[in-house]
Each structure stands twice: as structure tokens, then as C-alpha cells.
Amino acid sequence: MPALLALMLLPGCPSPPETDADDSVDPTDTPDDTEVDTEVDTEVDTLQDTELPCDGCTIDGHCVDVGEANPVNGCEYCDPRVSEVAWSPDRFGACDDGLDCTRDTCSDGRCTLTYVFTCPWPAETTGQSD
């Protein structure tokens, strides 16, 4: 008999309280099938599935910053006031058509020639030195 229990059984000591609970575990007991939660939560949230807000334009599945130029056409840019899903035409921006001695500007999304000026001759063709 454990010492604590023996002390409690001494005359004049209160006996341990009686309980109706059975704290023993029967290893042969198995839970009813109705008690087992068989549902599996298959919904998994991942960052990949979560759409983050895009303050600019969503073009070809990519978020583009407001004012960012189209890398293929410098006369188009992101303007969500015009379109949130496509490039918007730049009407007044500067561009370069690849020709020397011209000044070009964007007009409705296309690079157009606006001014031709006289090109200076290279120093070696005029006989002048630096």
C-alpha cells in the first residue's frame, strides 16, 4: 500500500473521496465507426493559388507597374485607366525609329517621324580634327 494511502487510512484521517469514474483503459476496446471523423479537408491554401492585388495592369498573366513601357513597343505602356489587361497607346512620348537624324514621337501606340534635321558630317570626312 502506498505510503500516502496508508496515512489516509489512519484513524482520524478522512478517507479518499469515492468517484464513479473508471480511469482504466481496456486495450481491446475499439471506437464505433460512427464516432470516427472520416472526412478529410482537401482544401489547401497555397501562395501560388492566392491572387495578389495588382495596382497596375495584368498583361499576359504578369503584374505590370503603372507607367511601365511595353518592352516590345516603346509606344505602349500600362495605364489601368484605359485598360487593366492590355497595353495602352502612348500618344506623345519620345521614341526612336532607328534612323539617324530624325526626331520621333509616339502617336497612338506607334513610333512616327516628326522632324528631320541635318546631320553633322563626321570629323574624318570633313578633314577636321578634334
Can you put this structure into words, describing what you see?
By secondary structure, the chain is mainly beta. It has a domain at 57-116. The protein has two helices and seven strands, in the order αβββββββα. The strands form three sheets. It has a three-stranded antiparallel beta sheet, with no helix packed on it. It has a two-stranded antiparallel ribbon with strand order 1-2. It has a two-stranded antiparallel sheet with strand order 3-4. The longest helix is centred in the first third of the chain and has 6 residues, at 3-8. The chain starts with a helix and ends with a helix. The relative contact order is 0.09. The mean pLDDT is 75.
